[in-house]
Each structure stands twice: as C-alpha cells, then as structure tokens.
Design goal:
This protein has 250 residues and is an alpha/beta fold. The chain has 9 helices and 7 strands; from the N terminus they run E-H-E-H-E-H-E-H-E-H-E-H-E-H-H-H. It has a 7-stranded parallel sheet with strand order 3-4-2-5-1-6-7, sandwiched between helices. Strand 3, helix 3 and strand 4 form a beta-alpha-beta unit. Helix 4 packs across helix 5. The longest helix has 17 residues.
Length: 250
Amino acid sequence: MKTLAIANQKGGVGKTTIVVNLAQFASYSYGKKVAVIDLDTQGNASWTLADNTVSLKLGDVFFSDEEQLFSVNENISLISSDYKLANIEKLNVEEICEKLKKIKSQLEQQGVELFIIDTPPSMGNALVSTLLVADYVLCPIELEAFSLQGVKKMRTVINNVKQRNSSITELGLLPSRVDNRNANHRKQLAEMKQLYAKLVCPFSISLRSSVADAISSRTWLGKNKKRSAKSAIVEFSSLTDWVLHQTELA
C-alpha cells in the first residue's frame, strides 16, 4: 500500500478536488482499491464522497482509547471528518502519528492499494503528522501571488520532515485551478517552472465548470458524457496515470 498526502498549508488551491478525483479515477478507471481520510475540518471530501463512508469517524480515532475496527469497501473507502476533529491540534505530533499508523495498518491488511490523505489548510500538527507517515506528497498550488509565496514555507516544512521521514518522496508542485486565458496565470506558471524546474509536475489542472459541477453533484467526472467535460476527464485521467506510475502502483 502507498500513502499519498495532498498537502498545502493554504486553502482554496483545489486540494479536495484533487483528492476526490484521484480517488475516483484510480478506482473506477484503473481498478485500484482506494481509501481516503479527510483530515480537513471543513469536511468537503467527506461530503462529496459520502456514499463511500465506512463505519469509522475520525473523532473516535483520535479521541477514544478503544480500538477502532472497521471494514473497507470494494472500491473507495472514506474515513470521514466530524465535529470532534476540530480538537485535533490539541494532540501532539506523536499522538496523531500513532493513530494514523493504526489506520494504515488496518487498510493494508484489507488490501487497500492507495491511501490518500486530504490535509487541513494550516501549518499545524495534523499536516506535519501526515507528512511523517506518508510515502509521497503532492502539493497543489494556485497561480496567484499569495499561493506562490506559500510554496517556500511548504518546501521548508517538507525538508524539515525529511529529517524524520527520509523515505517520503515529493511528487511535486501541481498547478491547480489554472485559467490558460489569464495572462497572469501564464506568467506565474512560467516563473514557477523557472524557480522549481525539477518540482513542477508535467500536468496542470485547469479551472473548469465541469469539474466543479461533478464535485457539487457528488458524481464521478468520468461518467460525464458531455463534450464540455472531455478535456477535464483527460486531465484527471492523465494525472492519475502519472501518480500511479510514480507511486509504483501501475
């Protein structure tokens, strides 16, 4: 099993959209057994993937002394966020890591191949703990000034984490919500590729209404037969194929 963290300390960069679509395309198009854990207290991934929820709440995982047992689904298994998760930052890194490792152990025993963690948009213990237990990290970025400023901070955190988790692999920076008609986006993307030539992913995710529609209607983008969704499907299918090869799952 491979554990993939989707991480950025800034909100609004499309993390949850990446998480949901990677899980769906990996499962429905590539036949992988996938699990998603929603560590973001906003619970957007939990809402979108609600039909895939397993009988386990994160509040019980982190704030109960009892052993939490659960069974995974055949395709996608969601371990959803709940109101108790708002207190996760009261736990230290070691406590959060221990709980995440127990979840990982159960998922692996039940044949899960890809474990995706949606992280909170803040530089706290939950984000750091996720990186400490992850095998890979992918960082969605929006091509706006504030997002680009945050890349340096995120890079610092990952480099610090590598001192304790030397096996974590950076898949890179994934340009997200890109408007190719926007001159500023094109300029920022060019600058990003110049500054982080080895880290910028060979793919970008465009800002498309079909993607937002699929998320809001809680349906898989890949089932959309409209011509307007074709480019979005190609983007996410290509991204998923690349991620599976990078994580040695393809």
